[in-house]
Amino acid sequence: MCFSATVSFAASGALAVAGGASLKLAKKHERLIALVPLLFAIQQAIEGAQWLVPHSGVLGQIFGYAYLIFAFLLWPIYVPIIVYRHETEKHHKKFLRWFVVFGAIVTFGFFIALFVFPLEIFVKGNLIYNLLATPALALVGTILYSLAIVGPLLVSSERSFKLFGVLVFVAELAAWNIFLLGFVSVWCFFAAALSGCILLWFYLRR
Questions:
Q1: Are 15 and 41 in contact, with CB atoms under 8 Å apart?
Q2: Is a pLDDT exceeding 70 seen at residue 111?
Q3: Residue 132: what pLDDT?
């Protein structure tokens, strides 16, 4: 997490265990869902490594961009695809198809941003990833990012997905209001912690 290497590595280990157990419980068509804790485990391990190297050095930049590839390029498209593939109601599925397209557009936008804007990584109470874009552009990006991830969860006909979407949105608001500068890192940690609930979801469905 953004507060220390110890917490990041501990979270990574716990999520790896939860992800492994989820994969064992998942049916074939549910494996993309079961992979979420494992992917977050990798992301948290990368952030743990970020704490151990000079943030402005070459390794620091490599770990920083690796972390943001997960945060900015993976999740905005991965979440809509998961929800779309799991959806059984035709009406919802048609609507969710547009969220997949929207998520792809958001991912492409952040892909361009990672090339255009320099990345600044520093510690100010917690770990900060700062793409040096204009405040207005950063705000628009945050809103679109949130919509790409939370939107399909709330639109899903699956009640557990809707609940997870609400929890993720609340976590996002908390990260925004309490840790504004460290929003990306803190929100991803909250989302990672919530992804551990996926194991509970699989267990309760047995």
A1: yes
A2: yes
A3: 67
Dihedral (C-alpha) 160, 176, 147, 35: value to the nearest 10 degrees?
-50
Query: Mind listing the pLDDT tens digit for each residue in 53-92?
Result: 877 778 888 998 998 999 899 999 999 999 999 999 989 9
Sign of the C-alpha dihedral computed for residues 120, 125, 127 and 129 taken in this order: negative
CB 86 within 8 A of CB 33: yes
d(CA 179, CA 196): 22
Q: Are 72 and 107 in contact (CB under 8 A)?
A: yes
- Name the residue ranges covered by the structural domains of the chain: 54-195
> pLDDT tens across 116-146, in order?
888 887 766 666 777 766 778 888 888 899 9
Spatial separation of the C-alpha atoms in residues 43 and 63, rounded to whole Å: 10
The pair of structure tokens assigned to 98 is 């547009």
How many angstroms separate the CA atoms of 187 and 167, rounded? Answer: 11
Q: How many Å apart are CA 104 and CA 121, to the nearest integer?
A: 26
**Cβ atoms within 10 Å of 26's Cβ, excluding its own:** 17
Q: What type of residue sits at position 89?
A: E
The pTM of the whole model exceeds 0.85: yes
